[in-house]
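ugh ok fine here u go
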Amino acid sequence: MEVRARPVGGAHSCAAFTLAARRQLTSPRKTSVAVVDGSLYFVKGMPETVIGECVTYTAADGSATNLTEKGRTRALSQSRRMAASGLRVLAMAYGPTLDDLTFAGLVGMEDPPREGVIEAVQQLRRGGVSVLMLTGDSKDTALAIARRCSIIGGNGESFDDSTIDISSDDFHPSSHNPMDDLEFGAGLALSGEQLDAIRPENLTDSIMGVRVFYRVAPRHKLALVRALQRHGDIVAMTGDGVNDATALKAADIGIAMGRGGTDVAKEAADVVLADDNFTTITKAVAEGKGIFFNIRNFLAFQLSTSFAALSIESVATLFGLPSPLNAMQILWINIIMDGPPAQSLGVEPVDERILSARPRKASDPILTRALLFRAITSAALIMFLTLKVFFK
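structure:
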């Protein structure tokens, strides 16, 4: 990762910044730098990258103290502890040049799930929808948020962000138990770097069962969409940035954010959420299932009555019997008896069992054998009772 920053000149209110701006470059790493004009670079980024670029850290008196490998290990361990609680962690550094950076500390930012998101994810999973998370955050943060949102189940542990001095001998990095990876979903997560190492023809099989993708770039999102489509899945992709446009366009259903989304993302998407609320997607899925179910009910009702009327007239004509239905009766059935009941079926509330059913395949027909069998048996019953009453 390339660290980018710009020098900020002028007076510095912090003593540590003033000392850093006046610091002479004596390390062998900075022999190529000839001029120090009092300006400072302020850098933020991934802890593992920023800490690796730092050569000193800020002591209690504001002076720069040499950052040893032990100190780096302590800082990275602290970063992992913060990330494991669901915090988005950034490392801060400053210095007169990018080759003379001083580690300033870690910042953990909490972005809790919006109200209703956890319930929405749980409802989608009960309904057979696989929810995947693609994020640029670290693995620990991604898994913690995924557990909190029920994407992989479980809730994140609370974290006490008390100040820890990396120069203190009282702090020891927590040991890593390999079994924790299995318990907390390491087998359910892949990084962008790991995705790059997978051959494109093997990507579809490699990501099956993975629910969390961390440290991903826009190209990874597009690759994942296409891999899932090759598996035969219907992919809905959410996004709000310019970099998400290609993945939104490639997905079967591109969903952009209406409030926080960019114009490019909205143009590339098929659906724009006016309220930027994930629960709206759940309502849309439920509405789609309900509409399809009601269409089938409508067809079953219409086909049964139409088959019955046609069969009654056919049987009467075949055996030379008088017609049980005259033109006015048939017209009455079509207009009065078919219309209102069919419309009622079209807006009937859907049973919870239908909403919890697994999604159907896009290739599944509306008219199935079961539906035709139900329509034919209903028509046969209507025909039998009508002829029985007519000739009685």
